[in-house]
Amino acid sequence: MIRHAGRGTGVAELLLPLDGPLPAAEELFGAGLRRLYLQVPLADGRTQRAAVAAGYTREGVARGAGTDASGAPLDLVVWARVAGDPDGPSPRALPDFPGGALTDGVVVLRPLTAADSDSTYTMRIRPDVSGRSVVGTPMDPAIVARQCAESESRWLEGRRAECTIRRAGDDAYLGEIALFYNEPLLREAMIGYSLTPEARGHGYASRAARLITDWGFEIGVARMTAGTADDNVASQRVLERAGYLREGIQPGKLPGPDGARIDNVAFAKLRPAAT
Predict the structure, then answer these.
(1) What CATH number did the domain enclosing 239 receive?
(2) CB-based contacts of 212, cutoff 8 Å, min separation 6
(3) Long-range Cβ pairs for the range 30-37 (8 Å, 24+)
């Protein structure tokens, strides 16, 4: 359904749920509209993919613009298209994995989804994981479930590609890894990862780091970075085995417990030169 956002403004809101594909923008623009937009829950990856396919651009998040099933405020992501925009699909800084996953035959990386929330929460709340987290680990399982459900939206935004690490063969959950595209203008991205205690010491983290790093280079990233606390020798070995080079110490870069600051050991890997 389409609602005019003020008669005579040339703006129309696409109301959800929509039956079938998004309306043909050319027909609506031909009828005098200048701007089409829709507001979608962050966890609704299907509709956001339809917006990308139809040439819509992500504009931001309207905080508290909707309500959830309980009536509580719900953030909505805004996708819009204006007259003159090129036909879709819209360009993506972080495309999907080819075939939906990355694997080297030993580990498999798959996009994080709502179905991974229990395993993710169980791992993240461990002190040896949360204590190494730069952004902190929420202790509320509902928050972790929401973060997992909204992961696809962040991927479509081009901000981060979050994955689970699975063992090939039995699909056992090993941990998580993400590529953070914080500097797209510089074509620089960062990786971060965590493993369950049972998965450590088998080379899984290095394999996962190599997979997501090589994928980053394939999609155009020129420089990949990572970092660890100075005393996290195991993580430093992971990065070295994945081909990262130690660049030096960044004093006080990382937040530590009780407001303290922790030195970061910086690592980087450059995209191989074309041959």
Answers:
(1) 3.40.630.30
(2) 102, 109, 161, 163, 177, 178, 179, 191
(3) 33/83, 34/10, 34/82, 34/83, 35/10, 35/11, 35/80, 35/81, 35/82, 35/83, 36/11, 36/12, 36/80, 36/81, 36/82, 37/11, 37/12, 37/13, 37/78, 37/79, 37/80, 37/81
Per residue of the chain (275 residues), give pLDDT as tens.
566 555 556 776 666 555 566 777 887 887 788 888 899 999 999 999 999 999 999 999 999 999 988 999 999 999 999 999 998 899 999 999 999 999 999 999 999 999 999 999 999 988 877 666 665 556 789 999 999 999 999 999 999 999 999 999 999 999 999 999 999 999 999 999 999 999 999 999 999 999 999 999 999 999 999 999 998 999 999 999 999 999 999 999 888 777 788 899 999 999 998 76
With b for 16 or more beta-carbon neighbours within 10 A and e for fewer, the 216-243 pattern comes to bbebebebbbbbbbeeeeebbebbeebb
Output the pTM of the full model.
Answer: 0.90
Same domain, 114 and 49: no
Q: Is residue 93 part of a domain?
A: no
Q: Within this chain, do residues 20 and 109 fall inside the same structural domain, yes or no?
A: no
Domain region containing 12: 2-82
Boundary residue ending a domain (82, 117, 139): 82
